[in-house]
Amino acid sequence: MRGERNRKLHLSKIYSFTCCKASSVDGDHAQIGGKGYSRVVLCNETDSSVEEIGSSRNYYEYADNCVRSTKYTAATFLPKSLFEQFRRVANFYFLVTGVLAFTKLAPYSAGSAILPLVVVIGATIVKEGIEDWRRKKQDIEVNNRRVKVHKIDGIFEYTAWKNLRVGNIVKVEKDEFFPADLVLLSSSYEDAVCYVETMNLDGETNLKLKQGLEVTSSLHEDLNFKKFKATVKCEDPNANLYSFVGSMEFGEQKYALSAQQLLLRDSKLRNTDYIFGAVIFTGHDTKVIQNSTDPPSKRSRVEKKMDRIIYFLFCILFLMASVGSIFFGFLTKDDFRNGLAKRWYLRPDHSTIFFDPKRSASAAVFHCLTALMLYGFFIPISLYVSIEIVKVLQSSFINQDIHMYYKDADKPAHARTSNLNEELGQVDTILSDKTGTLTCNSMEFIKCSIAGVAYGRGVTEVEKTMSRRKGLPFVHERDISEADDVRGSLDKKAAIKGFNFTDERIMNGNWVNEPRADIIQKFFRLLAVCHTAIPEVDKDSGNVSYEAESPDEAAFVIAARELGFEFYRRAQTSISTFELDPVSGKKVERMYKILNVLEFNSSRKRMSVIVKDDEGKTLLLCKGADSVMFERLAKNGREFEEKTMEHVHDYADEGLRTLILAYRELDPQEYKEFDNKFSKAKNLVSSNWETLIEEVSDNIEKNLILLGATAVEDKLQNGVPDCIDKLTQAGIKIWVLTGDKMETAINVGFACSLLRQGMKQIIIHLDSPEIQALEKDGDKIAITKTSRQSVLLQICEGAAQLTAHRGISHQEFALIIDGKSLAYALEDDMKNMFLELAIRCASVICCRSSPKQKALVTRLVKSGTGKTTLAIGDGANDVGMLQEADIGVGISGVEGMQAVMSSDIAIAQFRYLERLLLVHGHWCYRRISSMICYFFYKNITFGFTLFLYEVYASFSGIPAYNDWFLALYNVFFSSLPVIALGVFDQDVSARYCLKFPLLYQEGVQNVLFSWRRVLSWMLNGFFSALLIFFFCTKAMELQAFDHEGRTAGRDILGTTMFTCVVWVVNLQMALAISYFTLIQHFFIWGSIFFWYIFLLIYGAVPQKYSGNAYKIFVEALAPSPTYWILTFFVVIATLIPYFSYKAIQMRFFPMYHEMVQWRRYERKIEEPEYCDMVQQILLQPMTVSSTGRLAAKANRSMGKDKILNRR
Known about the structure:
The protein is α+β, with helices and mostly antiparallel strands. It is built from 42 helices and 35 strands. The radius of gyration is 38 Å and the shape is elongated.
């Protein structure tokens, strides 16, 4: 039944740009067959018929429909993943040393050198393999989706998507995805139109209308394709989603094809029972796959700095090896002089080249290679893989944070990449979209102006904020008493999405008693008729819902319905409504015949419909932006212009989005002339056909009569003002880049706490009388020159204001600039001045910004400040900004998933940014920074003991430790506690991170990973190694080691030193941890315990394999009191300096987080006066914007008032 009803609708007649009939092919279509337009598709050809024709390109040269998003294949996985790993300089170094371990140069066995590298590289490759297998499973699921394809004799059978070939005819049914790029042939509608949802492509949720050629629109049944043959010639595969040039040869005639006939893969068929289409592009040739380029590679600043530190360690390594080799060369040369052997026990007269005094230079070179291998333990081999593991686990905590889960939409936070976790703790500037990011992008009809009278008693978020800011009661409180009855009745009704209007003067049919009831009737009739929405009637409840192209349009239709003008049916060329008849007081059905629809676009900024009512009048109904509508009014249509303009400005001040409504009556002859011109322009296929349609439309949309204006509210998301206030207290600068007009943006800025009372505004615009006069004259060169000079002058004046207030007061400044001015401010000779001005302001708002300008501003801030930027947005127009920023955060809102797909992290609401940055960002930065510093500490402690033993043994090239002690140190004895630190450690709890937002500045100022801090940890490692080595060697050097009088050899000394190193580095970790968990206890004590277990097991292995560690613990170390006493003494002595330093530093020179820890320890953290003291101390050394300082001071003042009141 539904299909029968749909076939009665010729919906193409209500659209201006969709009718495609047979016509001449010119313009872009003349290029078909040339370069870039060489594709030939034989539609509905079988394999055998293709071979008979002699063209096999469709099936054998064009891509198949199997898509692959994996990074590797079975053949390339191993070589490609190995190449990826050995691109890292550290891994390549260990590969070289592993290869050299098979030579006589090696100071250790080859197995002990290769095993750690295999474990580390293997773990990383396994991780890569698991991630790629997940992508492979997604590909398998997509490739095996099923669709109906024409087989033979009009029979359609299901087949997998991957089996489709170019030229196949497919049948796609309602709510199914298109399996490839198709040319639309016909649909369940008579005129081959269908509705398409492109959310997966461009992020937009509104439905698009597509229409097939008229010549194929009659192919409604499966059997119609039994003998269907056609040839499509078109452009080659490309990434442009919004254009398509081709032609179809059918029935010995050629028909032009455009983007209107192209159905893109991964779009969804909506509100249409089925369509038939011919496959044009498959697999990786489809436009969506052509657009799916990899996002730009982003690396955090911490990771980049870590690379530089590793290069620094390499320099130290080479320096130590070179200096040691020079000394070794001189010592070796002195071993045999004048026929006398100085170190006779080395037998220099019968030594190999490695120790030959006669070839000391060669021996020094070979020793240098040996030393480079031996000192390689300075470089933490497991650092990269440990950091990757930690980041993945940190990302899982972000994903599972219940406080960032949006229950209404069932959407948790999702870290789409784990590379930038620590970067979240270093954000200096946030660049945010407004609509859908700060606001809900869910429009509500709240006010209107009709015949110069303002209606609507609702109070917007902006009004509430403005009233609070001025210390006034809400502006409409005076109306509350007279509206109580209306509000009481509304409260009993269920909330209506899109409608938040309250005014007893026109609700419940009371509009008929208003002085200008005739204008009110025309106003709401226009709202009920002038749109392209599709009604859907619920058969069970009878309720009508609407599928509209935008939230605004849906809100208008719903408002008209609630106020007595219900649009309930769209027929072939008509719209039907139920309207309240002012005479009878009853609802009557009215039908309007639709003659034309003149669509909305960004250049026209208006939409019109031409209808004929049941009285035979031809009416043009128009709604559009005030910037284009007022100039189109007739002289006799401006009766309410002054009042309406006043109301529009008031609505803009209240943060509302406005449209002007107007109409005119057309005489038959005028309409006939327009319709002839319009039909010719509409049916012409040429490069400028859209321009011709706009010219014809422009001529008819004049001499309008003003009815009034609508005002809809895009409400702020919950928690946005508090979130912005908290972020500014953290010292983060916030820029808003919006397409809204300046008045709306400013007032929304006040509503969301971006602008505050007392903040001085620097406004840069091009609305001066001089420029307006030049615009009327149309002199473009003069306009450009004057505009550029004006913007430059305003930037200089703004900078002068800031300079004048420097040092005098804590005056806050906000910079507000419009899109026209921004275009000049971003020019090469002016952008640095603009940036310097902007970064000195607490808040920045860029109005009327295009997507390109958003990306350019983001690039300017990132490159100009050199600090971390975060961009946040929700729509396809924000993609450039998200990819340009250091961190891109996508809001998974109502504008689809395009922003999310291009982002690094996805959240459902803007307010979750507070927890993402101040809690997870702060923790991740601290954890990764501490983890890397500790890695360098433990490796330097271990590696430097090797160097000291080398010096002690005259640079002999013999390691102090057993081969497998060396191999397993980084893998088992010291790495797991570091991973636990990186995953679980907290300096303060989440509650205190939010309570003291200025703690976030530790990351912005990079105090935890500065060169000073890194070098101090390295020095701590050198100092620890010195203490361990000298205490152990001096304690064992001259006296007996056990009760049998045996002295310690290299085996006992080395094992004792290694025991001390394991204890020291693990207990050092325990001292550095701020937040202990059972897992951390397990890893720290477990690593130490595992060392002793390993000694027992390894010592029991035959001596052939265990070497000098054979039964060393059982027979030599465990029975000796010296071993246990020395271990205890060395560990305590080595840790005392660090412990003392930390105690003094925390008591007298505490860092920001340590102040909070100290107050928490004293249990005074909840007392307001102590909180105030901590905040005041925190503010002293902070280099943050005045925003954070003033906000914190205001909070302190409020805290003091509370204390005084309590007293």
